[in-house]
Every structure is written in C-alpha cells, then in structure tokens.
Amino acid sequence: MMTDQIDTENRAIGAASPALFATLAPLGRRVSFPPDIPFQAAAARGKTYNGTIGQITDGAGSPLPLEPMAAAVAGLEPRDSDRFFLYSPVDGLPELRQRWREWQRRSVSPEAPSTLPLVTVGLTHGLSVVADLFGGVGRKLVVPAPFWGNYRQTFAVRTGAEILSAPAYLDGRYNCRVIPEALAGVAPGEPAVAIVNLPSNPGGYAVTDSERAELIAGLLEEADRRPLVVICDDAYAGLVYEPDVSVRSLFWDLSGAHEQLVPIKVDGATKELSFFGGRVGFITFPFDPESDVAQALESKVKCLTRSALGSPVAASQMIVLQALRDERIEERVEQVRRVLEKRYRTLRKALEEVAREAPELLRPLPFNAGCFALLELAESLDADAVRRHLLEDHDTGLVSIGSSHLRIAFCSVKRAALPELVQRVTRAAREMAVAAKG
Ligand SMILES: Cc1ncc(COP(=O)(O)O)c(C=O)c1O
Prior knowledge:
By secondary structure, the protein is of the alpha/beta class. It is about 45% helix and about 10% strand.
C-alpha cells in the first residue's frame, strides 16, 4: 500500500515537472508520509470519542499543563495556549502556514503559484530536508564561494552530494555567472542543485537590479542544459539597505521561468523576525497549494520531518503566529532593519577609509545587505592567524572564512563600536604583516 502511495506521488511530481523528478535523490524517491498515528489522528479530529493520539489532555482536547508553564503563557487566548502545549501537526500549525504564505507574498503577483509553506525547525532543518530530497551520493551541488560552511555538512557530509564552487566575486564585483561557471565541466543532461543565498552569509551581499537580470539569465541558460533545482536560501530576506537592491526573493523570478528549472524557497523567522532561538523555518515550492505535485512534495517533507523530529515545536510556532497576527508587524520588522542599516552605513564608511589607507592589507568585498561584511586579506596573511591575534591581543572576535577572509557580523556590534573594531582589525593585520616580513 505504501508502495502504491509512493508511486502515485512520484508520478504526480514527474507529471508536473519531469526536471524536478529527475533531480529527486534515491531517498527523495523513497519517502512518503505514512498513514500512521498523525495521519489517523488527523482523520479522527472532532470525533466525540477520539482515542488516537498519545498526548495527555483533559479528555476534551485541551492540555494539562504544569502550573509554572501555564503561567508563562498566561497572556494567550485559551485556544492559543492549548495549541502551545499540544503537538503541532507534522507540517506545522495551519494558521501559521497560511499567515507566513501571506507574509512571503507581500508585493508578489496573486498569479504566482506557491505552496503552503511547510514548517521546519529553523532554516537548517529546512535545508537538510531539501538535501535529503535532492542531494544524495554524487549529486552536484553548486554554491558560490565563499559560502556558509554548514551547507557542506547538510548536503555533502550528510547525503554524499558533491560540492562544486566558483568565486562569488570577481574583480571586486559580484559574479553573476557563478553558477554556470561552476557547472561548466558537468555533462549536459545531468541534474544539478544550486544554492542562491541573497542577501548572503558570509558576504552580506544582495544583487542589484541589473545583476539580478544577469544572474537569472545565467540560470535559465543552465536550465537549457540540465534539470536544475535552485534553492533560494532567503534567511536574510528583507535586510537590504541600498535603493538599487530589491527585497524580492529570486524564488518569484525563477518560478515558472523555465520548465527545467524548479526553485525552492527556504526561509524563516530566525533573522526575518529576529527570533533566533525560536527555530521556526519554512520550505515552499512553486506550485499551486491544491495541486497533486504540492501534495506529493508535502507528503515527502512530512515523512522526513516525522522520521527525524516527530513534529515541529508548537510553542515557538505560536510565538511567530502572535507576531504575524499583529497589524503592525511590518513596522516592527522595519524598526529592526533600520537599526541594522545605521550600523551598515557606519561600517561602510569605516571600511572605505581602511580601503584608502591600507589597501595592501585589507580589501573589503562589496557588501550592501544582510548582517555581514567580508574582508579579503593580503596574500601574505593567514585569516585564522589574524583572527587569533585579534582575540589574544586586541580583545576582538571575528570569524575567519578559509585562509584569506575575515567576516564582521555587524548585526551583533553596537554602531558606535564599529569604527574602533575596524581600527583594531587594521592594526592586527598590520602587526601580522610586519611579523611575517621580519
Ligand atoms: C545563509 C544561512 N542559511 C541558513 C541559516 C540557518 O538558519 P537557522 O538558524 O534558522 O537554522 C543561516 C544561519 O546562520 C544562514 O546564515
């Protein structure tokens, strides 16, 4: 029976998008949400005698919370506090999914198809589910470099995918051809997966409007050569600071743009709603929510979530839901963005001075968005050695990326402290350069 269900779902995916089916990993083809406890409990919802699910209730669907925990959520409506204490559905709380969909679709055309987002435990879990579906041994995964190191764990270490990369920056500019360049040696027809993370970590870069058009053109050209799944890691969605950079996710531009290209959106409340500890993320596919392909993909994601986590955390979903119900949510998110924009401008100015004064030591790579700035160090310097020197002698912590880059997370430094931080980095780099010569 499970095999019939799996076959039906795989056929629905193949019928809607042969490219997406061609890119499904062996694990992605095997998984399907089983008709066991959550499925049967959902079927029994509302029955007078419902003995399906193993959660402790008052016998009428409400929880029996411990007093101190009930006190912690005393401000919630009784129905919401019930949802706080009981299991979430495996795909997430329905109202949260609906409201996040509306949040994602602000300023997006009503015709653009997108599924009801599936809830994950932070973006990392969302990425690992997508890796299980479309990674697997030998699958080529393209990530512009330098990249967030955890992609390696999620895709290569866990599933055996092979990371291919090309430089995200060339001659001090974003390299819009990075994905076709990285795939140049891969045989035409072989399916591949690409990650586009804009605004980026560690780069702090989002494409300008003209670069966006070039980037899309390159992806469409690549899709002429092979089935291509493009994961839009929108962790830093909304955090843009320049007028020529749009907040719009590439997901919307790529959706329906080529029959061999399927974008998948991974996003969440972590940075977008400044809720890092909440671990609420989402996976969204570019299909109508009622379509067979949407249902088939949902079944696969639910199987992966259920097998690893049971279900996503209800308590933090409830907190995100409270935020999304707030009429002033956009204004509140904008307040946080403005704080970061001020830090961004201060850091930019300080780094422009360094670039003028000590170009032989440090070169800031272009940055215009998100939470970070990247510094490229002189060839004679080792990034991790400079990082340790900063820690030991300059009371300053930064992250080294590979052997030649240092990342400044301006999102976690007071605006007034940023010029001094930059002075310290410059001093440390100069000291290391002198020591290397001597
Ligand atoms: C680019 C990128 N993707 C995903 C994540 C993971 O987000 P989460 O903390 O929600 O798992 C991060 C976190 O730093 C990130 O920088």
